[in-house]
Amino acid sequence: MAVRTIAAGGGNWNATATWMEGIVPILGDTVFAAVTSGQLTVNVAAACTSIDFTNYTNTLTMNATLSVGGNVTLVAAMTIAGTSALILTANGTFTSNGKTLSGALAINAALTITIADDLRITGLLTLNGAGTTTINGLFNIYIGSAITFVGAGYAVTGTATFLVTTTCTWTHNSTSYLINTLTINCGANTLTFSTNGLRCGGGGTTTYLSGNVAGTKLILITLSRVLNVSDMIWTSATIQSGTVTLLSDWNIGSLTLSTTAVAINGAFNVNATNGLIISNAGAFTGTATLNLLGGTWSTSFPAATNSISIVLKGDVTISGTVSKSGTLTYTSGKITVAGSTLAIIAAATLIDMDKIAWNTVTVTAGTTLTMNKFFSGSPKQKPTIQSSTSGTVYTITFQDTFEKIAKFVKVSDCSLTTKGQLLMLTPNSNKGGNSGIRYINQSPNGIAKNAPSITDTMTCPALGLAADPCFY
User: Fold this and answer.
1) CA-CA distance, 33 to 73, in Å (whole number)?
2) Backbone dihedral angles phi then psi of residue 463, each to the nearest 5 degrees
3) What pLDDT is recorded for position 428?
4) Are 375 and 396 in contact (CB under 8 A)?
C-alpha cells in the first residue's frame, strides 16, 4: 500500500502534478493531506483504500464519486464542496472530527462501518447491499436531505443512532429494514416517508420527539422493537414477529399481525382507529392494552392465542371468527357482529358483554370465564352461547355476588360457580346441559320446560331467612 500526498499546488485527482509522488492514487493507496496541501478536485470517478485529511485546511471538491475501501478521516478545518458521493466499499472507521459531509454518502456493500464521532450528512445517504450492513459507534448519524435503502433482503444494524433533524425524504424498498435506533426530531421541518413507509427490525428503538411527518405513514416491525412515539399517528402498523415494547401510547390506524407470534408489552395503550387484522398462526400476547376505536376485527387463525387486553371503544365490525382469551372489555360504540363468532379459547375475563348482541359465542370446553354480567341480546338478535364440545361444560364465575339477569340468549353446557346467581328471562333459552341457571317467567318455580326438576335441597341458616335462594 502506497501513500499519495496532495501537493502544495493541488489540482485535479487525475493529474500527476497534483500528487507529490507524481502518481495518481488507485485502490490500495492511502490519500494523505498535509498542512501544506493545496485544494483537491475529484474530477473523475476515483478510488483509494483510505483518506486521511487530519491536517488539511484547504478544499476538497466532489465533482465526481470517490470510492474508499477503508478508513475515512476528515477534519473541521477543511472545506468540502460539490455534491458527488463519497462511496464506502469496504470495512472501516469513519472519523468526522466535527466536519459535515456536504455531498452524498453511499455504502455499497454489506459492510461493518464504525463511526468514531457524530456523522453529519447534508445530501443523500444511500444504503445499498445484500445481507447486513453494520454501523457501530455510540454516536449519531445526522440524516440530510434523503436516505434510501436498496438491496434485496437488506438490513442495517449496529449501535449507531440514526437522527432526523431537518427536512428529509425516507425511502425503503420492499425488503429492506433498519435495526439501528431511530430518533425523529425535526422541529418545524418535515420527514416524508415514501411508499413503503418505515421498516424497522429488532433490537433498536424508534422515537418521535418533534416534526411534521408526511407521505406514507406505515410502520412495519420485522423483529422486536422499542417504540416511543406517542405524539404522532401512523396510518397503519404491521408486526411480523417478535416483541414490541412501548415507552408511550402508540396511535395507529389499522394494526396487522403476520407471520409468527407477536407480543406488545408496556403499561401503555395501542389506539387503533381502523381495526385489527390477525393473519399469523402464533400467539398475540402482551401487557399493553389494545383499544379498538373503529374498523374491522378479523383473524385468519381463530384457534391462535389472543390474550392481550382488548377494549372495544368505538364502532367496530367483527368479521368471521375471532378468538380471545385474557381480557375483553366493551366501553362504547356500535359493535356489528352479523354472521360472526367470538371464540373463547382459554380462560378469559369479559366485561360488559351484555352490551353486545353477539351472533355466536363458542367457549372451549372446561374453560372458566370471569364476567361482571352475562351475555344478552335483543328480540331480533339472540346470541347462542355454547361449548366447543357439546355435552362438556364451561364455567361462568361472576365478579360479585349479585344476581345477574340475561335475556334474549340461547345457552347450552353452561355451569355456574355460584348456582342460581344467573336468571334467564328468555323462553326456550335452555338448550341443554346447563347447571345452576334459574329461568324466570317460563314455568313454575323458575324451571325451564325442557329442564329437569331441581333435586338439590335449599338450605337456610339456623335462625332467620336466607338472604337469597341459592342452589347447592
Assistant:
1) 10
2) -125, 135
3) 87
4) no
SS3 label, residue 444:
helix
Contact 82, 57 (CB under 8 A): no
Residues 6+ apart with CB under 8 A from 376: 354, 357, 383, 406, 407, 408, 409
**pLDDT > 90 fraction of the chain, expressed in percent and rounded:** 87
Indicate the burial class of 195 (C-beta count within 10 angstroms; 0-12, 13-18, 19 or more). Answer: exposed
Whole-angstrom distance, CA of residue 161 vs CA of residue 175? 21
pTM, 2 dp: 0.90
Q: What are phi and psi of 355, to 5 degrees?
A: -85, -5
Note the pLDDT tens digit of each residue in 74-121.
999 999 999 999 999 999 999 999 999 999 999 998 999 999 999 999
* Averaged pLDDT, 125-145: 96
Cell of 56: 488539511
Strand pairing partners for 135? 113
CB 317 within 8 Å of CB 297: yes
Residue 299 has pLDDT above 50, yes or no: yes
Query: ∠ CA(204), CA(205), CA(209), 5° rounding?
Result: 155
| Residue among 63, 96, 101, 100 nearest 82 (CA) | 63
- How far is CA 48 from each of CA 26, 31, 291, rounded to the nearest angstrom? 5, 7, 56
Q: What's the one-letter identity of residue 73?
A: T
- CB atoms closer than 10 angstroms to residue 135: 25
Do residues 421 and 398 make contact, with C-beta atoms less than 8 angstroms apart? Answer: yes
Residue pair 347/368 in contact (Cβ under 8 Å)? The answer is yes
Burial class (CB in 10 A: 0-12, 13-18, 19+), 366: middle
C-alpha cell at 357: 348482541
Per-position DSSP letters for 174-225, written without gaps between them: TT-EE-SEEEEEEEEEEEEE-TT-EEE-SS-EEEEEEEEEEE--EEEESS-E
